Amino acid sequence: MRRLSKSEAILWSIALPGFPQLLSGQFLKGALLVLLEFVINVNSNFNRAIMYSFLWEIENAFKVVDYQWLMFYPCVYMFSMWDAYRHTLDNKINGTYLPFVFGAYFVTVGLMLSPKIKLFSVSLGPVFLPMLFLVPGLLIGYIIKVIINKTSRKE
Prior knowledge:
Layout: H1 6-15, H2 19-23, H3 27-44, H4 46-54, H5 58-64, H6 67-70, H7 73-86, H8 97-113, E1 118-119, E2 122-123, H9 125-154
Antiparallel strand pairs: 1-2
């Protein structure tokens, strides 16, 4: 069983959810996460939406994406990252899940709002807007984690 560093765990999870679990010997969990990522990705047409978004054909991205499937993606993705990260912490996981949970929540909200929100009269679509929503989600989760850890130390 290979021990990953924190950055390795996060970067492998960004590349493909489930990879860090496979690398660290958690084969069943890793295979399940890879399978879930694949099923959600294919059924939501997410790769096509990414391609259209990077070509700045946002309307085509909206047309191909299946929101019913894609809304599962942030939770699987962020859970995979948190799980890989927590296995690098030697059981010191007090609140480490909070940035990941709030990140998943905010990305999902960004995905739901993506057809409605325009920045400077430009729609960022179902890929870029949810990515922007990740930043405040991670920050809010981290701030709450810090507050909880400080108050629990005082008691």
